[in-house]
Write a sequence for this structure.
């Protein structure tokens, strides 16, 4: 006598419906393409010591900035996966494997990455040379980035000019598979000790919760170190329902109504900026 | 005859003496009235010659404006909470000013009440500050002009004042400063303004202590308020350094990120202000006196931008 379990057509329909409902319930959250066992992994890198590289002054507050984000999120139940600062912060951690990088083990192995240091319209900068293939030393150049094929959903760049209007599409090739978006600055910014902490507070129930783009806006506009001469920005993918990501466990999708707009729903990416 | 001659000589000497005395008085008066101020001006002129500093990384810092003379001490300003911020009052304000009817909830993190109702988020702090934000604003269809936005914001501010939320101390004034694009969104090559930010300077005896912002969106609706004002009072005075001493601190005072790409930093304006280094929801004790240096930054590629460098004015 066969012991194989028999499933009726009704069981199959029920299972399919149940799965679809589960999927729909979760679609608003920042989900990764892979490794969804933990949706709360965070990695931070920061650089104060630029070792006298021409044009890149030493900084003093980037550790406070990045750790403010990490510690506040950790206190809210998120997982602190890694924290590398100064000479331990390596560009290779963000570069794709085909260029000698190891983003699969670092940047693309967590859900959220926060970087604090120097930047410019085409790159963000490091104090030591650990480039994957020797090109674009001391920096993650946009051409070296390809995120979301692993775990990464959002990358936050607390650095000058990385999301400048007019050149932001440089980063379009970094949107691989499931990366949801970038938060950063369109112009130069001021050194800050508070921005990371404020961002975490607006993402969670301390001051929020807000969806990620709006939490970044609220944080940059509340940061006492910034002023109206500084413009922050967000560059995000919207064609996969990533328009109003909240973070996991802190749902708030009040921006979702905007998705109904016929123009926007046909776009691939959206860009927004604001004065701080 | 001899006696008469003596009298004439004496009289002449007397006039000579009087004339000499008068001349001396005139000379002294002339010195104090004309020459000394000129010398003083010269000293001040010497102080206004373009000063040039080389920062440690080779950047050039040029002072391209007059170094203003500043007092050696200025008022010490303390912030204090208002006694009359209650749940009832917040309910009333929320309904009348923002159309919100939800109950105010006391925050477990800040000295403030909060009403979150759908996309609307209102905070009223015990200092009388307001923080209001509307989520999900992406497609404005009927945005007012900038001057209309200014009028709408000023009218709104008057209504806020009527509820006693703004500082009651007559030394504190809130004055209009600018209208800027508050939020722009669209595609990477085509942005549209979704709302305007109308900016106001909060001043204590004419010196800036904070900046307030009222955002005006579609159909003239108030879509955001950062009412960054606190009840403030003078509680003493504090000694401050000179502008020149403050300039020398620029390189060491944590502006490396902002000025890093600049080949040249040209200071074009210097003012004394106070800095509220806490967010609108957080507790604040005393405001920090700072020198604000308006700078024109020039990059290696020749691009220019404006930056405001805030340097602590206390020793």
């Amino acid at each position: 006598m066969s012991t194989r379990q028999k499933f009726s057509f009704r069981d199959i329909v029920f299972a399919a419906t149940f799965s679809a409902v589960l999927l729909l319930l979760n679609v608003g959250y920042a989900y990764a393409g892979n490794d969804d066992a933990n949706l709360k992994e965070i990695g931070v890198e920061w650089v104060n010591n630029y070792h006298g590289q021409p044009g890149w002054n030493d900084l003093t507050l980037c550790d406070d900035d990045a750790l403010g984000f990490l510690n506040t999120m950790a206190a809210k139940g998120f997982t602190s996966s890694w924290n590398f600062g100064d000479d331990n912060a390596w560009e290779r951690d963000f570069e794709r494997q085909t260029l000698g990088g190891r983003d699969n083990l670092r940047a693309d192995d967590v859900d959220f990455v926060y970087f604090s240091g120097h930047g410019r319209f085409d790159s963000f900068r490091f104090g030591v040379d650990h480039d994957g293939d020797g090109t674009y030393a001391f920096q993650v150049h946009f051409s070296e980035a390809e995120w979301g094929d692993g775990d990464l959903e959002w990358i936050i760049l607390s650095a000058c000019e990385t999301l400048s209007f007019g050149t932001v599409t440089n980063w379009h090739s970094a949107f691989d598979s499931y990366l949801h978006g970038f938060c950063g600055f369109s112009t130069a910014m001021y050194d800050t000790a508070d921005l990371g902490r404020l961002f975490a507070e607006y993402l969670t129930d301390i001051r929020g919760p807000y969806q990620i783009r709006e939490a970044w806006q609220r944080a940059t506009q509340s940061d006492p170190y910034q002023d109206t001469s500084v413009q922050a920005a967000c560059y995000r993918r919207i064609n996969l329902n990533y328009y109003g990501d909240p973070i996991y466990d802190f749902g708030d999708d009040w921006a979702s109504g905007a998705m109904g707009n016929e123009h926007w729903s046909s776009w691939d990416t959206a860009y927004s900026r604001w004065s701080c | 005859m001899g006696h008469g001659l003596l009298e004439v000589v004496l009289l002449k000497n007397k006039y000579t003496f009087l004339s000499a005395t008068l001349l001396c008085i005139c000379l002294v008066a002339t010195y104090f009235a004309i020459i000394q101020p000129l010398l003083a001006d010269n000293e001040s002129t010497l102080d206004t010659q373009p000063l040039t500093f080389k920062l440690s990384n080779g950047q050039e810092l040029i002072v391209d404006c007059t170094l203003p003379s500043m007092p050696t001490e200025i008022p010490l300003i303390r912030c204090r909470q208002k006694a009359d911020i209650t749940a009832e009052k917040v309910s009333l304000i929320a309904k009348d000013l923002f159309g919100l009817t939800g109950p105010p909830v006391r925050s477990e993190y800040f000295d403030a009440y909060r009403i979150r109702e759908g996309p609307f988020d209102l905070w009223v702090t015990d200092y009388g500050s307001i923080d209001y934000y509307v989520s999900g604003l992406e497609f404005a269809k009927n945005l007012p002009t900038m001057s209309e936005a200014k009028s709408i914001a000023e009218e709104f501010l008057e209504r806020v004042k009527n509820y006693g939320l703004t500082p009651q101390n007559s030394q504190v004034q809130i004055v209009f400063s600018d209208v800027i694009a508050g939020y722009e969104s669209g595609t990477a090559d085509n942005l549209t303004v979704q709302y305007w930010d109308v900016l106001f300077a909060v001043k204590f005896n004419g010196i800036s202590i904070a900046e307030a912002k009222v955002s005006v969106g579609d159909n003239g609706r108030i879509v955001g308020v950062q009412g960054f004002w606190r009840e403030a009072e003078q509680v003493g005075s504090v000694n401050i350094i000179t502008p020149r001493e403050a300039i020398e601190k620029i390189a060491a005072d944590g502006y490396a990120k902002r000025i890093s790409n600049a080949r040249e930093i040209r200071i074009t304006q210097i003012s004394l202000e106070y800095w509220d280094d806490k967010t609108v929801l957080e507790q604040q004790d005393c405001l920090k006196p700072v020198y604000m240096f308006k700078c024109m930054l020039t990059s290696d590629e020749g691009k220019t931008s404006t930056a405001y460098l805030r340097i602590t004015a206390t020793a």
Notes: Confidence is low (pLDDT under 50) at residues 34-47 of chain B.
